[in-house]
Amino acid sequence: MKVLSVTPEIFPLIKTGGLADVTGALPLALKSQGIEVKTLIPGFIPVMKQFEGEAVYSYDDLAGGPATVLMGTVAGLDLLVLDAPHLYTRAGGPYADPGGNDWPDNWQRFATLSRVGADIGQGKLGAFQPDLVHVHDWQAALTLAYLRFEDAPAPPSVITVHNLAFQGQYGADIFRLLGLPPEAMSVDGVEYYGGVGYLKAGLRAASAITTVSPTYAQEIREPAFGMGLDGLINTRANELSGIVNGIDTVVWDPSRDPHLKRPFSREHLDGRRHNRAELERRFFLEEGHDPIIAVVSRLTWQKGIDLIAQELDNIVAAGAKLAILGKGDAELEIALAAGTARHHGRIGLHLGYDEGLSHLMQGGADAILVPSRFEPCGLTQLYGLRYGCVPAVARTGGLADTVTDANEAALAAGVATGFQFAPDSAASLTYAVRRLVNAYRDREVWTGLMREGMKADVSWDRSAARYAALFRSLVSPKEESA
């Protein structure tokens, strides 16, 4: 089976979050299922610096300038890169300028990516005719609208929602510039509350919808999590499923991770103490036997970082140290910096993102704190399980699906892997930290939590098999039902 994947980012070429990890790891995992994936991505500056490909299709004028589709391979990934300098050769990130402001023409940049995705889906690339098109999030969602409103037959399609909060909503004035027929500007098409909704269009047009965890698939059917799309999602409930993410267990392998001071394994945990000492040095934390709790996150309200900022004094009073890595809202950065100044040696803060440092934090911290208000899947806690960095997570979405709370029954049965607490509650967060600190002081209990977590299968194997089964059911429905 041949699948076209369309995504705005992919690891290791360009990454702003977990989406890139998923789109980079899933194609590799699907190879073992007999599925060939080619991934279309924009030719952002970091991508073009690492990629050399062969020109396989060209446009004289694509949204105001010439463009070329390049084909090549990087890190085992088969890629199609849309080289359109007038759209993607810009300083800053893939979505925002150096000052953090969204590019005003993002509507066009990602509509164009989607238009090219639809062209490839229709076989215009010649040698590559996909059996199925798989798109990720709002930036690629319009691909399915273009396919749906073309006269030519369209292949079956899947849209994966990594975060429903980001929807790609624009004013109705852009519709005439999208190149869609007039009938597409309807409730049954791309129209959304009087404007144009990219994600909404993809959800309506897809043959199947997936989210990145079973619990999140149910949560988004409710108004509290549906972000205005719960009505549409409920009409498509029979086509909706949740498939929990995996992680790349080669990139994330504590026994051979080059970012660690010392490697370690489930059977031989001694290397963790050397990583812990290095973490204390890098974050200017005082030495001692209190647990180090890591936070690796975008510093935003969704991620619950305001709850951490509110409870810094109580977390330190509970007997924990904090190592925080991330960047985000200015107010939260200021609050965390102020807490770091108040508790020098107990809280360390690194504003920004550093891939290597995030690995060291998983391999050296004792626990990882993820207090998200909503979390479609979350990868941070999966890295924690893999590295014996015990997760403390809000009871929501994929966090609830992947971490088993250390309650008395789970501890007695030997199946606990971390701590859960009610989302959106500062008091419950601090209570979870107190539970964590108490458990840490019992070395037998803590070692059991670490080793049980490290035993968990966080690879893509099972999830890739589920994706493969879904793809086959859409491509060959009669064979599947037989």
Automatic annotation (TrEMBL):
InterPro entries: Glyco_trans_1 (IPR001296), GS/SS (IPR011835), Starch_synth_cat_dom (IPR013534). ADP-alpha-D-glucose binds at residue 15. It is an enzyme of class 2 (transferase). The keyword Glycosyltransferase applies. Residues 2-234 form the Starch synthase catalytic domain. Its EC number is 2.4.1.21. Keywords: Glycogen biosynthesis, Glycosyltransferase, Transferase. It catalyses: [(1->4)-alpha-D-glucosyl](n) + ADP-alpha-D-glucose = [(1->4)-alpha-D-glucosyl](n+1) + ADP + H(+). GO terms for molecular function: alpha-1,4-glucan glucosyltransferase (ADP-glucose donor) activity. Pathway: Glycan biosynthesis; glycogen biosynthesis. It comes from the Bacteria. Residues 281-445 form the Glycosyl transferase family domain. PANTHER family: ALPHA AMYLASE DOMAIN-CONTAINING PROTEIN, GRANULE-BOUND STARCH SYNTHASE 1, CHLOROPLASTIC/AMYLOPLASTIC. HAMAP family: Glycogen_synth (MF_00484). Synthesizes alpha-1,4-glucan chains using ADP-glucose. Belongs to the glycosyltransferase 1 family. Bacterial/plant glycogen synthase subfamily. This is Glycogen synthase. It comes from Mesorhizobium liriopis. The gene is glgA.
